[in-house]
Design goal:
Elements: H1 2-9, H2 12-21, E1 33-40, E2 43-50, E3 58-64, H3 77-90, E4 93-97, H4 109-121, H5 124-129, E5 132-142, H6 144-157, E6 168-172, H7 184-188, H8 197-205, H9 213-219, H10 237-240, H11 243-246, H12 278-281, E7 286-294, H13 298-310, E8 315-324, H14 338-354
Parallel strand pairs: 3-4, 3-5, 5-6, 6-7, 7-8
Antiparallel strand pairs: 1-2, 2-4
This protein binds 2-acetamido-2-deoxy-beta-D-glucopyranose (NAG) (4 copies).
GO molecular function: carboxylic ester hydrolase activity
Active site: 143, 295, 325
Keywords: Disulfide bond, Hydrolase
């Protein structure tokens, strides 16, 4: 498409930062939705509250934006547009969570910000204040926000105070593991203009450190510590990827212990929701996963689909054959990317039926 050709001319990093930095919107209400910036505990959030009177309580969607924990905001014009549109279409309360970002705030601060804001929102008195039906709450995340959504959902499901509070999780082209950087999609779409592998690794590593040894090791898939071999069975694409995506790729085991420094986050399921075992996965709520073909993160989503189906989690999976990573980012001006609207309509119509 013309769009992809244009993107190819720019350096993707420049494009990314242009989009996310210059583009923050103010909280502007419209005829249907009251938009406010506030804070849940210490985490800033943007709230979208439908204006029209409702006889019954409303569903709620908690939105976690993407950007590799380094870029992005729930206030970009694309995300503001999406969240406003969702609030209107679903007659739902939408909460955009503005967690802090690396490299200034490294792991686990962004995650803890999100958890703290979400737990605050899920209190009965707060749900009541916003007219939210406590049985109809969804967590939705895209890209790295999808990783956060998946791990927060796992956390809450294991917490007696929050168990069953989340009715559904929606993961849009999510990243779901950081332990294997040689999945077939990582190899096939290494040079994809939207999320090239090098840039993704460079950005992703800033979540832990600015030390260049980490991204160098990740590029070679040699970043995991000694003693972590048992974790690879949970992300082994050779066992979980449908045949059509394996093609002629050959599974090679990552080499362990090459990185001198160790980062505890590398083995933490909060950063790799795929690392939990089947009995943990079994507890998860209704799930929607969308994957895009042209996406280095494609296989993370596909592996989660297989693993969740294997343990009987109720799940809907949409795969966009010509899909590119991050299409929702290009839904607003000046791009108006058609595919972004298609993706939005797919998951929002699923939410209309299931939330
Ligand atoms: C308000 O809602 C109506 C009905 O859904 C819609 O037609 C209209 O475009 C909405 N207004 C805005 C500013 O989104
Ligand atoms: C990955 O799966 C393949 C085949 O399914 C198997 O031969 C290999 O031992 C597995 N490796 C790990 C580390 O789980
Ligand atoms: C790890 O440390 C050893 C010894 O200090 C050094 O020779 C080697 O280059 C280091 N490796 C990396 C990847 O930094
Ligand atoms: C699965 O993981 C949980 C939490 O880490 C652990 O308590 C449980 O024993 C594990 N179950 C199996 C079957 O390994």
């Amino acid at each position: 498409s013309l769009f992809l050709e244009n993107v190819g001319l720019l350096r993707a990093e420049k494009l990314f930062s242009t989009i996310v930095y210059l583009d923050l919107t103010k909280p502007i209400s419209d005829e249907n939705i009251t938009v406010t910036d506030t804070a849940f505990r210490d985490t800033p959030v943007r709230l979208y509250l439908p204006k029209k009177k409702s006889k019954r309580q409303r569903p709620a969607v908690i939105f976690l934006h993407g950007g590799g924990f380094v870029l992005g905001s729930c206030k970009t014009s694309a995300n503001d547009f999406l969240n406003r549109w969702m609030a209107n279409k679903l007659d739902a309360v939408v909460v955009g969570v503005e967690y802090r970002l690396a490299p200034q705030y490294q792991y686990p601060i962004p995650y803890e910000d999100a958890v703290s804001a979400i737990k605050f929102f899920l209190q009965d008195k707060i749900l009541e204040k916003y007219g939210v039906d406590p049985t109809r709450i969804c967590i939705l995340g895209e890209s790295s926000g999808g990783l956060m959504a998946a791990s927060v959902t796992q956390l809450l499901q294991n917490d007696p105070d929050f168990k069953n509070k989340i009715k559904a999780q929606v993961l849009i082209y999510p990243s779901l593991q950081i332990i294997d950087s040689f999945t077939p999609s990582q190899r096939e779409y290494e040079h994809n203009p939207i999320l090239p592998r090098d840039m993704t690794i460079k950005i992703g590593c800033l979540y832990f450190t600015k030390d260049q040894a980490l991204p160098q090791a990740v590029r070679k898939n040699q970043h995991m510590p000694q003693g972590s071999r048992h974790l690879f069975k949970f992300v082994n694409w050779s066992s979980f990827l449908p045949e059509k995506y394996k093609k002629n790729h050959v599974y090679t085991e990552p080499i362990l212990g090459r990185l001198n420094k160790s980062y505890p986050g590398l083995t933490d399921s909060r950063l790799s929701p795929l690392l939990v075992n089947d009995s943990q996965l079994q507890k998860l709520p209704l799930t929607y996963i969308l994957t895009c073909q042209h996406d280095i993160l494609r296989d993370d989503g596909l592996i989660y689909v297989t693993r969740l189906r294997n343990v009987g989690v109720k799940l809907t999976h949409d795969h966009i054959e010509n899909g590119i990573h991050g299409a929702l980012t290009f839904i607003a001006s000046p791009f108006y990317l058609h595919q972004g609207f298609r993706i939005r309509d797919k998951y929002v119509s699923w939410l209309e039926e299931n939330l």
